[in-house]
Amino acid sequence: MTSIDDLPIRDDLRGREPYGAPQLDVPVRLNTNENPYPPSPELVKALGEAVAEVAGSLNRYPDRDATELRADLAGFLNADTPGAGLTADRVWAANGSNEIIQQILQAFGGAGRTALGFEPSYSMHPIITRVTGTAWVNAQRDEDFGLDPERAVAAIEEHRPDVVFLTSPNNPTGTALPLEAVEAVLAAAPGMVVVDEAYGEFRREDTLSALELLEEHPRLIVTRTMSKAFAMAGTRLGYLAADPAVIGALLLVRLPYHLSAVTQAVARTALAYSGELLGSVETLRRERDLLVGWLRGQGFEVADSDANFALFGRFADRSAVWRAMLERGVLVREVGPPQWLRVTIGTSEEMAAFRAALKESV
Ligand code: PMP
Known about the structure:
Elements: E1 28-29, H1 41-55, H2 67-80, E2 91-94, H3 96-108, E3 114-119, H4 124-131, E4 135-140, H5 149-159, E5 163-167, H6 179-188, E6 192-196, E7 220-225, E8 238-241, H7 244-251, H8 261-272, H9 274-277, H10 279-297, E9 301-302, E10 309-313, H11 318-327, E11 330-331, E12 340-344, H12 348-361
Parallel strand pairs: 1-11, 3-4, 3-5, 5-6, 6-7
Antiparallel strand pairs: 2-8, 7-8, 9-10, 10-12
This protein binds 4'-deoxy-4'-aminopyridoxal-5'-phosphate.
């Protein structure tokens, strides 16, 4: 049997583990922050028709620049953040925001360069960073998982990173950053600043999107995805908003025709149904706030959440709790600081199952 170690693999990949949130077939899956509501029969029909329409020309490559999709995404962002003033040339799309992040690092990171993030945060930021040959610097969030602007600036001044990652709302904590923190980082950072807003649509009313800052900051990139609030994780569509020059830089590293004609057609159809797809956001927000209140009532610590999940603890042995819940058909996520677990907000039935399983598991 040949093992990876027998192969002439890059030295820096030896001993690494692949990304792997368990994909288990259990009744209540609350571990990867998806939207629990599937598309309506009407949308399913529209998606089928959109795919049928492009099927007849699948012998040809798709639009390499995804021009129409990017215009639709710009329209969606302008509705999300009135005043953002985005146009297609300020928006870029790829196969999930993970690919967006990879393209950013291919263009602005690489050998001899550094990216910095504030942990605990999204585990793929350091993984994609290293895979692109970029060095990773792990700075820390505050005790309450927030980010004090002065501490953030001090970390940036110490390490002078080429790319800074800010995640807001943050995964796995749910914590959103005030725009003042983002502005302080932008003022101090010598390179690109990426605000990962994968959960942006779930933000609370008084939380503002970093899209508000784009006009004044050509080195700011705001990333979004259709995988979370948009209920289209299976489509694999992530996108960003930035200065047109940033998109010019990404064109240098993207693979030709990276976004299939089927993906573009499905994503555009989903955007045309954004009213339906985002219709569940209010329900999920309400369910989140109920859950956080319930967990606190039960004596758990819970991080404030602007997202569709909650980080709760603390557990002396979180793996034991995770396993006990799994035995009861409820899959949550063992992620983040060692004494905490993360639960995605599902339907009210799923949350009832979660509450029952948790009570029996601690
Ligand atoms: N950013 C954050 C903060 C995430 O939590 C995720 C998904 N877990 C992603 C990006 C990537 O999502 P996708 O590739 O599905 O767009």
